Amino acid sequence: MAQIGAFNQLTVIDIIAHGAVLDGGDKGEILLPNRYVPEQCQAGDVVDVFIYADSQDRLVATTQKPKAQSGEFASLKVVQSNKIGAFLDWGLPKDLLVPFNHQHRPMEVGKFYLVRVLNDERTERIVASSKLDRFLDVWPAEYEQGEAVDLIIAGKTDLGFKAIVNNQHWGLIFQSDIFKPLRTGQKMKGYIKQMREDGRIDLMLSRAGKGKVIDFKDQLIDYLNQHDGFCDIHDKSSPALIQKTFGVSKKAFKATVGHLLKQGKITIEANGIRLN
Questions:
Q1: Considering the domain boundaries, does residue 2 fall inside one?
Q2: Which residues of 68-97 are buried (b: 16+ CB within 10 A; e: fewer)?
Q3: Is the same domain home to 92 and 55?
Q4: CA-CA distance, 202 to 143, in Å (whole number)?
Q5: Distance between CA atoms of 119 and 102, rounded to whole angstroms?
Q6: Considering the domain boundaries, does residue 141 fall inside one?
Q7: Which CATH number goes with the domain that contains 197?
């Protein structure tokens, strides 16, 4: 059965003048237009395609990859607005509609918004919504302090940045725990700093203590490999330079350098760090 708004592996049943006809199961036959048909494609082949509705609301297949599938969050740009709603660029020929009743606040052309892509049950169309609370769990989260989680940065607040945790819950990264630039829609790994009694989640971008050292260790090794095995930033460098270069505090930098030095992976020189 073909799923609308997602990638599917569908069987080619025929090759016609306009493209390949795919078996969409209960969705019927679905056309893969000629410009997306693989070379030497023939009946019986299985192709990996994304299914959505074209401008005439007919189901169509494409090998193009949208910026988000149904059920995913993404930061997308508004390219048009009319009496129906706002339209977002999501990487496909037909722009993605955000109906007015799915807009958290009126959307403006040229601006980016974090949205959830979904299949509208009433119209069976793929649409987007910026009313994110509708798609997050209302039940208290159960995370352990220090647990690794997937984050989607949702926007800046007076205290720091809101983030969606594991596509399920709201969390907050306090400004004091941010050591690198963040942007709305950015996806990254994070960690649970603490679970508050009121159910709110505090987040951090790197582990505390030993875990923090290990997290940054690979990044520093990669930097050395990319710069002929040498780094001219050292323990006398300014905190601002360290943060700008590596996105970590000077304390984390020094701890990581000490950790690698003990392992014999680096050597400290007068003007920097050398990879052994």
A1: no
A2: bbbebbbbbebeebeeebbbbebbbebbbb
A3: no
A4: 11
A5: 12
A6: no
A7: 2.40.50.140
